[in-house]
Amino acid sequence: MRKVSAPQAASLLRDGDTLLIGGSGGGHAVPDALLAALGARFSETGTPRGLTALHPVGVGDGGSRGLGHLAQRGLLKRNIAGSYVNSPPIGAMALADEIEAWSLPQGSLSQLMREMAAGRMGLFTKTGLHSFVDPRLQGGRQSPSAKEDLVELVTIRGEEMLFYKPYHIDIAFLRGTTADEDGNVSMEQEAVTLEMLSEAQATKRCGGIVVVQVKRMAPRGSLNPKMVKIPGILVDLVVVEPDQEQTYLTPHSLGYSGEARIPLDDIPRLKLDARKIVARRAALELFPRAICNLGSGIFTGIANVAAEEGCLDAICLTNEQGNIGGAPASGGDAGAATNPDATVDQPYQFDFYDGGGLDLAFLSFAEFDAAGNVNVSRFGGKLVGPGGFINISQNARRVIFGGTLTAGGKPKAVQQVEQITFSGAFARQRGQPVLYVTEAAVFRLGDLGPELIEIAPGLTVEEVCGRMGFRPAIAPDLREMEARLFGEAQIGLAAHIAARPARSQSPRLAGL
Fold first, then answer.
1. How many CB atoms lie within 10 A of CB 222?
2. Predicted confidence (pLDDT) per residue in 102-140, tens digit
3. Where are the membrane-spanning stretches (predicted)?
């Protein structure tokens, strides 16, 4: 292992290389100093050109950091990512067809890193079937120049599956907290560990170079071996960035890293608005010991509501980046969690999700349509990508989508979504229960599409339908949404959860 500067590491990239980038969202374990050095090199010299950027999770601050450093015409030829929401400049380049762009499920890309590390053919999974990732629809392509088939439809033992092809990696930019003199890297101040180990292993399997950005160095043999996430045998170069922040918004939270537990009183109470009403109504679906995922967006507010009502301990909230328990963070820090009980590597979290481990998934919608399809990946002239949405929504035992019924006066319930991120027909085929929760009404997925089952006090059916781009079926037992959702006082969520049937356990445990 050698210690080098960020510009020295960036100088190793050559025209046409594939760069694997670790990290998540708004700065979680993002090697920003390395990306900044690469962007500066291209700005000054015009090289390297035509790179492929591969990153399972979206990376950026919504502006110039993260992948934003690479948003320079000619630097990238293609971008393959789980999400573009954190790097709008890259998304804009894709929409303008200045780069070849694909967005694939975050979980599938994360698991693919592990398959590549082992030298296997690629990833075989049902995740993505009947969504825009399915080759029968768009194959994950997000720009006209993206021609290559990165995903194939295959049949194994009579069942349809998707095959995600592997990639050859030339250089990986990863991040940790501390490196010792042998290159062993720990991640004790990071909020998530992601797939750093798999990414380093996959890169070495390809004969590539592993560069790790860290905050500090430590003497040889001083790191607890159980804290080492990237062994030194996989690390070629280390770049020390003493000012490394935990995220772009938070320099260092002990509650995020698990170094200390912080009072839940510090979790902010949400103001009463449409978003809080949606989060409250969705929270009524919780039950004791329920294992849940809170997607980024409106439903991160469920953690705030549960903290306010004093019932976080009654349920288990998780996020796809690997945190289990605690209160998932919202806003720019989404992906972290305050006071998690455990943090596992991201591929294993998605293994759990794909295996049906989630009782409830709470996910935002950008739009839903008359067939029950949901779109979060591309809408209104924006390229967002699915992130972990496809893995989570497709495999949870029950899924609750949430959002406001309109945005800027325009319906979010439309006749046909722009892009299918979740297939209503596929959910019906598998018997998956689905709710669509808004501040004005609640719908369930019926035989033909969304069916209106609850309506906000003071509204009529015609007023709700007038805010929609299609007329839904009306349930014969249509009822009002509970009035307590719309007041300033607490809604009694703790008592509500306690009164519901708990998560079922194995019958073998009943006699103990």
1. 12
2. 999 999 999 999 999 999 999 999 999 999 999 999 999
3. none
pLDDT of residue 431: 96
Upstream peptide bond of 48 is cis (omega within 30 degrees of 0): yes
Q: What is the pLDDT of residues 199-237, one digit of tens each?
A: 999 999 999 999 999 999 999 999 999 999 999 999 999
CA distances from 133 to 116, 118, 127, 130, 293 (A): 20, 24, 9, 8, 22
Which of 353, 317, 358 lies closest to 337 in space, CA to CA? Answer: 317
Q: Catalytic residue numbers?
A: 320
Q: In the structure encoding, which two tokens stand for residue 476, read together? A: 């014969």
CA distance 28 to 296: 14
Q: Encoding tokens for residue 508?
A: 């073998």
What are the backbone angles phi and psi of residue 379, rounded to the nearest 5°?
Answer: -165, 150
The span from the CA of 167 to the CA of 169, in Å, is 6
465's tokens: 């339908």
Q: Burial letters for 293-319: b for 16+ Cβ neighbours within 10 Å, e otherwise?
A: bbbbbbbbbbbbbbbbbebbebbbbbb
Kindly state the DSSP code that residue 142 receives in the 8-state scheme: -
- Assigned token pair, 483: 């009035």
Structure tokens at 41: 């090199």
Please give the biggest Cα pair distance in the chain: 72
Rounded Cα distance between 162 and 175, Å, is: 30
